[in-house]
Amino acid sequence: MENQAIIESFSDFKEEKNIDRVTLMAIIEDALRNQLKKKYGDDENFDIIVNPDKGDLEIWRNRTIVADGFVEDDNLEIELTEALKIEPDYEVGEEVSEELKLIDQGRRFILAFRQNLVQKVQEHDNSIIYKKYKDLEGEIMTGEVHHVRPRAVIIYDDDQNELVLPKDQQIPSDFYRKGDTVRAVVKTVDLRGNKPVVILSRTSEKFLEKLFEQEIPEVFDGLIIVKNVVREPGDKAKVAVESYDDRIDPVGACVGMKGSRIHGIVRELGNENIDVINYTSNTSLYIQRALSPAKITTLNIDEENGKVEVFLKPDQVSLAIGKRGLNIKLAGRLTGYEIDVYRDVDEDEDVELTEFSDEIEAWIIEELKAKGCDTAKSVLDLTVEELVSRTDLEQETIEEVRSILRSEFEE
Hints:
The chain contains 16 helices and 15 strands.
């Protein structure tokens, strides 16, 4: 019973790791053989009988009987006199099996055995966690915030496994307290030493794609396919969707009546503005849809260099570019083209100065407007000297402004 008592004391932690008894006993045998090999130099002449039902084990050492005084290896051979103490009818040349008790191996042996056992249990546990989450890369996980660090939030899943949500994988508006529930996608699973490190992300395109899959039944069922996703986390996103069923409007199905379906996704992403567009293999039409809500007049596509020139009416330019240039930036990433925007104006037309806010700083526009120059032609009608005398602007600045304005009326 001594072996069983010691093994039971070692296996107290198995409940925390959720290891079944059969697996634990296999790990115990492996750890024990390692320790026997260290002490005796070899473990091949040992038989270890594990009984997982009783939680017990037996250790038997097999040695060959030799004449007294002829023992060359204490681990493999035993003198006849010693063998006869075990069984009185043994003879030289026979093999004798002797049961060993753990408690007789000494305190240092048992402590080292325990340390080895704990290490192997941890390795087993780590391998289970690694495989589980490696299979879940790209999938959404839900967990609870355990503690918040400056550079990361530590999250525990239902099995109390540690997951990491780094600061750079959080949406800028995210704010967490201990106990909060968090949804994020499994970005990567790496091994650092023997420990698996699970990195989560809320900023990746995959997270938004999987949210569509979770929240929109037609996407989950495969009736609507998410073709591409681009994001500036927390600000704006564009999602291209396609339906293989002509009866289904993919954009309408994703957005829902008055935005009812997409509202939950927007809220999850910190009110990120999501444009859902209908995917098409027609490059020209795809670029036009990607620049929505702007309406394009014409465009020239340079397939070889991956560039496109887009011409719009002056009042559509700011819509195409978007706040902080996000709309055109995301449209370019979505379509894979470098997009250049040009104002489409006739020689007889004039353009409000405010339409040039993407190229001319606002304070310069205000300075010109204050002097009565509120359109492009009203500025071009004056000479550089006249503008210098009327405004507080430097000659170099005025020449640069005139150059920008003049280019709008050139062929």
